[in-house]
Amino acid sequence: MKKLLAPLCALGLLLSACGQPAASQPVEDDTLHILATTYPVYLFTTAVTEGADGVEVSLLVNQQTSCLHDYTLTVADMKAIEGADVIVMNGAGLEDFMDDALSASSAQVIDCSEGMSLLPAQGHEGHDHDTEYDPHIWMDATYVSSMLQQISQSLTELDSANGDLYTQNESAAQTALTAADLSWREALEPYKGRSIVTFHDGFQYFANALGLTIFKAIEEEEGSTASAQELAEIVDAIKVTQTYELGTMPIFTEVNGSTASADTIAREVGCQVYQLDLIMSGDGTGLQPYLDAMQQNVDTLVEALG
């Protein structure tokens, strides 16, 4: 475990478990072990740390899952947390499943949502969560820009030897992100104000950034579907709304999510079902996999709305 150069227990950039012993003492080495909790955070962290000497970034959760509401830490997850010098997390309640593990860890914690203006959590059909805020901040490039800055500044405080590199990497990532975000907004400009139905509550930031309105966000428990009454109410509401809008209202399911109820609604209202990616899993490092996935989402929207 690499010795941290500047503990940040007193700084607002970090939330850390200062003074709390780890469950076990890792073997000392010269490597700074960084653990990213989710795939988007992993991509942003590896973008910032690319080429950094003595730095290792690993990923905690990389599963084909549409959300982390019911995720349970494995034994391997617990060992990864115990062996981390730094834990980079999305924040905003997304990692509530690891609260107990964090309280027992001595790692410095970088909360990427720290200081952000968060959207309230959307209500969903068939789900009852206590999350106050919507944690899916990575679906808006503006928030990603803040996440990259948070990671870069925090790691520079902790590992000043690589500080210049972190800053350079962040700057390059910000440039690529800004250019991509501009192209996404231009592509969706003709469809600003259009309404969509999503079968996941995670696209609020995404829709807001691109000028779209989520008419209904429906989240279903794994292995279950919305009730017949719920489906009928949704169908009636969509039919009424479509009377006042140009074209049909497309329905979007989440990659790896259920499509049964969406298909039922689509048949009743005469629209099509498309898939959007919350980018919760994948391969690769750096910012490019994120940019590619978001571009695919934008292309899907243009196809559906056009």
Automatic annotation (TrEMBL):
BP-aspect Gene Ontology terms: metal ion transport
Q: Which UniProt keywords apply?
A: Signal, Transport
Q: Which GO terms describe its molecular function?
A: metal ion binding
Q: Does the keyword Chloroplast apply?
A: no
Coiled-coil boundaries? none
Tell me if Flavoprotein is a UniProt keyword of this record. Answer: no
Q: May I ask which residue range the UniProt record assigns to the signal sequence?
A: 1-22
Q: Which InterPro entries match?
A: Bact_metal-bind_prot9 (IPR050492), ZnuA-like (IPR006127)
Q: Which family does it belong to?
A: Belongs to the bacterial solute-binding protein 9 family.
Q: What is this protein called?
A: Metal ABC transporter substrate-binding protein
Provenance organism: Candidatus Flavonifractor intestinigallinarum
